[in-house]
Write a structure and sequence with these properties.
- Chain B: It holds the Pfam family CCP_MauG.
- The structure holds two protein chains of two kinds.
- By secondary structure, chain A is an alpha+beta fold.
- Chain A has two domains: about 1-35; about 40-275, no CATH class.
- Chain A has four helices and 16 strands.
- In chain A, β3 (about 60) and β4 (about 70-85) form a beta hairpin.
- The model of chain A is unreliable at about 1-35 (pLDDT under 50).
- Chain B is mainly alpha-helical.
- Chain B folds into two domains: about 50-200 and about 345-355, Cytochrome Bc1 Complex, Chain D, domain 2; about 205-345, Cytochrome c-like domain (Cytochrome Bc1 Complex, Chain D, domain 2, Orthogonal Bundle).
- A two-stranded antiparallel ribbon of chain B has the order 1-2.
- Chain B is globular.
- The chains are: A alpha+beta, B mainly alpha.
């Protein structure tokens, strides 16, 4: 008899829990009964060249070395996104949801949405350009979505199969100073620091302070942070200007040069506005 | 009271029953396959807990390994350059050729005891077995295919025009529960199959396990010479220490930088992975570029032609300053007799590892 009693209590509890979760699921659409714990922030990565919009394949631009160029491909990884409040507290986007591949030829990829961001006013964002070493050495089940290594190098592939690691930034184009065979230049910047032997580490962290404006996350509205991403900064560094004539191909084989490019492009992000 | 609760519970069960249309769990599922570590071998490097072997997974991996569908031309499979009879090397090919007879720059290495490898390829450019197949698939001189395109082709099977119309969606379902075909599953199936490529049944292994008569007098003399002169690099039961070393080969015209191509470290210039010597009697030609055609030539290199390159491994500089290893002609004969005891007949004839009939040897 006692065992039946225990069974009934257990069954009742299970049902009660089930009922409760059903009702909470239904109620989440009405904000009165349950307090939402987070909102969303969107970031737009708006690729530009100096003060002009970036247009692929057709418009000719000039870098600081006075070299003409047309961009045919511009892809980069953004990862490890964080937001900071005025009181110094930081919201870190959950790791598995913090990898984004921005591609100039795919409009949708240029807007990223971070969900479940705790409510409040944010004063700065921080993110990595590239893919951290942990994910570069992670098992294959952690490499889904934009991190799937099956992408092709001939298309938008962002993974080196022969020197296992992600390409952080891919900039390709043509120029009168391009290579003598087809007039093109190819900058594929990767290298995460090495698996069991140290190599160059080209991951870079970008901090964008919002200044006088704030990104206010509320239950009803999520801000959009509009970032300008200036391709010119890939060439024109604070330290080194990268010349297409001197370097029409920079990939894993020239780690020191790729480091200079990464040091340059870490400066390509500036705040446009927040709305 | 009990009755009221009972009725309540019953009604709750009834109304929630409609929400749960799950069929009775299918107990069949893939059958676990126990992976056995040979006696005296170290723990494997590959983490089997992330990818436990199953009969269906290994079988899928075996089909994928041999199927030319992995290549752009649908003709070159893994098994094309890694042939079982030659301990999964490309026998007779100094440099392997892939699609359209495109020549590679290196000799295809043996796939055996890969469970204990902590890095892959002659330069160690890949550190995880699950990421290995991407490399030959995407290399323009090997399979010259796009991995995502391989997945797309697999999803479209069975193809009635294939040599054998393999139904991959069904095989993926048998191995992983659903017919979804993705990178993770494809690579894990290939890893499962490669994990079963264990060579541990040579004459040497018999001797090592206590059968003192398994080796002849000459082979035993060779073993002693091996332990004295070779085993610092070709170490332990795996016959490799998995390190990268420069063994004094004069660089060829393409000046293959080896490990330095990955690390960009000048100290790694012209260093290559120390290969296991298991089945070495079956894997000619030798060295990363297949320049030596016989074990005699290999030993002649070590006695006669070790170049004093900047990064030459210090173990190849003798006390008197000469490079290489001092061996007499009869030492060499004894050593070769020993090296041939590392051939594993069972391994190269194991039907569980062989081509199920879909492969091509080119």
């Amino acid at each position: 008899m006692k065992s039946i009693h225990q069974y009934l209590v257990l069954a009742f509890t299970v049902c009660a829990v089930t009922l409760f979760s059903y009702s909470s699921g239904a109620a989440s659409s009405s904000a009165e009964t349950f307090v939402a714990t987070g909102g969303k922030i969107r970031i737009e990565f708006d690729n530009v060249v100096g003060n002009r919009n970036l247009v692929l394949n057709s418009v000719t631009y000039k870098n600081a070395s006075n070299e003409d160029f047309v961009i045919t491909k511009f892809n980069y990884f953004i990862s490890n996104v964080k937001f900071k409040k005025a009181d110094g507290s930081v919201y870190i986007v959950p790791q598995d949801s913090s990898y984004f591949l921005i591609k100039e030829d795919t409009k949708a990829s240029q807007h990223i949405t971070l969900n479940n961001v705790p409510l409040g006013d944010y004063v700065a964002a921080e993110f990595m350009v590239g893919v951290d070493s942990a994910r570069n050495t992670a098992p294959i089940e952690k490499r889904f979505g934009v991190l799937d290594p099956s992408g092709s190098m001939m298309d938008d592939g962002m993974y080196w199969a022969w020197n296992s690691g992600y390409i952080f930034t891919k900039l390709e184009g043509s120029s009168s100073k391009g290579n003598p065979v087809n007039g093109k230049f190819y900058y594929h910047i990767g290298l995460f620091g090495g698996y069991n032997q140290r190599t160059v580490n080209n991951t870079r962290v970008v901090k964008v302070a919002f200044g006088s404006v704030k990104a206010s996350v509320t239950t009803t509205s999520g801000p959009e942070v509009h970032l300008l991403v200036d391709v010119l900064k890939v060439f024109d560094g604070p330290g080194t200007n990268v010349s297409i004539a001197d370097y029409n191909s920079i990939m894993a084989g020239q780690p020191a040069k790729s480091q200079q490019v990464a040091d340059n492009y870490v400066n390509m992000f500036t705040l446009g506005h927040i709305h | 009271m009990y009755r009221a609760i009972f009725l309540l519970v019953l009604s709750l069960f009834c109304c929630s029953a409609g929400d749960k249309n799950e069929p009775i769990p299918n107990k069949k599922g893939p059958k676990l396959l126990e992976w056995t570590k040979p006696k005296g071998f170290p723990e494997p490097v590959y983490d089997l807990s992330r990818n436990p072997l199953t009969q269906e997974g290994v079988l899928l991996g075996r089909f994928l390994f041999y199927d030319g569908i992995l290549s752009r031309t649908n003709l070159v499979g893994c098994g094309t350059c890694h042939q079982q009879a030659a301990a999964f090397t490309h026998h007779g090919h100094e440099l392997s050729h892939g699609v359209d007879d495109r020549l590679g720059v290196r000799n295809s290495p043996a796939i055996q005891n890969i469970a204990w490898s902590n890095s892959f390829f002659w330069d160690g450019g890949v550190h995880d077995l699950d990421l290995v197949p991407f490399n030959p698939i995407e290399n323009p001189v090997e399979m010259d295919e796009k991995a995502f395109n391989v997945l797309a082709k697999l999803r479209k099977t069975p193809n009635p025009n294939s040599k054998i119309p393999v139904d991959y969606p069904k095989m993926f379902k048998d191995a992983f529960g659903t017919d979804e075909i993705n990178s993770e599953r494809m690579m894990k199936a290939l890893s499962q199959f490669m994990m079963t490529m264990v060579s541990a049944n040579s004459k040497y292994d018999l001797y090592h396990s206590g059968e003192t008569n398994a080796l002849s007098t000459q082979e035993k003399k060779g073993l002693l010479l091996f332990e004295k002169n070779c085993s610092s690099c070709h170490q332990g039961v795996l016959f490799t220490d998995n390190s990268f070393r420069n063994n004094g080969l004069l660089p060829m015209r393409n000046n293959d930088r080896g490990r330095a191509g990955i690390t960009a470290n000048p100290a790694d210039e012209h260093k290559f992975k120390v290969p296991s010597l298991r089945n070495v009697g079956l894997t000619a030609p030798y060295m990363h570029d297949g320049r030596y055609h016989s074990l005699e030539e290999v030993l002649d290199h070590y006695t006669e032609s070790v170049q004093k390159l900047k990064t030459l491994d210090p173990v190849l500089i003798q006390a008197n300053g000469n490079t290489g290893i001092a061996l007499s002609q009869s030492d060499k004969a004894d050593l070769i007799a020993f090296l041939k005891t590392l051939s594993d007949d069972q391994f190269i004839k194991d039907t569980k590892l062989s081509d199920p009939g879909i492969g091509n040897s080119l």
